[in-house]
Design brief:
Blueprint (H helix, E strand, L loop, with lengths): L2 E5 L3 H13 L3 E5 L2 H11 L3 E5 L7 H10 L6 E5 L4 H9 L4 E4 L4 H19 L10 E3 L2 E4 L4 E4 L2 E2 L4 H12 L4 E2 L1 H9 L8 H14 L9 E4 L3 E4 L5
Parallel strand pairs: 1-2, 1-3, 3-4, 4-5
Antiparallel strand pairs: 6-7, 7-8, 8-9, 10-12, 11-12
Helix pairs in contact: 1-5, 2-3, 6-7, 6-8
């Protein structure tokens, strides 16, 4: 049974989310503030966090940032009552995997949780090319079975979603992939036209694998179409 940590300071919302996620078959634990969430993440090791942005004391942004700085890559679904696009994008830049804006349907939360965990399991269960033979693109090496990537022999610190995106691009190297294809393949559900989440994650990957982010060698932007992983020679 997958374990979900709900981090929400409004008891009525926390109870509603807990009920719906338990009905969907998840084990659910609840924290009502940021510091408790950090402690419970370390102690309980949940499979996913449903993290409210507005929390007393330490807010959701700080929780997300702290977890990622500590190399804890547990998937995070961020909840926010704000409509400001800056907050959504900032949450993604800090390492959240997905976000929902309040008010939301409990069914939508459950659907997003299922999608994130399903994609995570698919990556973990990815079939290797024989003894986890890596994809080799230039100095980039991606090991599907180990869920690891290296650049010039050095490990790359990737979130689960960043790894999924990088692996998908590598598996389709040389092909131009539009944002809708990447949303469907990596996030596995409709994003109602909001493709900026792809751009944010591509930007993250470039910062971690490109020698020069202003002139990327590996992940090229094909203006008006999408992105392409170049077949860089070793």
């Amino acid at each position: 049974m997958k374990k979900v940590l709900i981090v929400e300071d409004e008891p009525s919302i926390a109870t509603l989310l807990q009920y719906n996620l338990e009905q969907a078959g998840y084990a659910v634990i609840v924290a009502h503030d940021g510091k408790t969430a950090l402690r419970m993440t370390n102690e309980e090791q949940p499979d996913l966090l449903v993290l409210d942005l507005m929390l007393p004391g330490m807010d959701g942004m700080d929780v997300c940032k702290t977890l990622r700085q500590e190399k804890i890559h547990t998937p995070i679904l961020m909840l926010t009552a704000k409509t400001d696009e800056f907050d959504k994008i900032l949450g993604l830049e800090l390492g959240a995997d997905d976000y929902l804006t309040k008010p939301f349907s409990p069914r939508e939360v459950v659907a997003r949780v299922k999608a994130i965990l399903r994609r995570s399991e698919l990556v973990k269960g990815a079939q290797p090319q024989g003894q986890d033979a890596p994809f080799v693109i230039g100095q980039l090496m991606i090991y599907p079975e180990r869920i690891e990537a290296k650049m010039a022999g050095q490990p790359i610190d990737l979130t689960p979603k960043e790894f999924e995106l990088l692996l998908y691009l590598a598996r389709h190297s040389g092909k131009v992939l539009n944002r809708e294809q990447l949303l469907d393949a990596v996030w596995n559900y409709e994003y109602t036209g909001d493709s900026r989440i792809v751009d944010v994650h591509i930007s993250h990957l470039r910062e971690k694998i490109e020698p020069d982010t202003k002139q990327p060698m590996y992940i090229k932007t094909i203006r008006g179409f999408g992105y392409k992983m170049e077949q860089v020679k070793s």
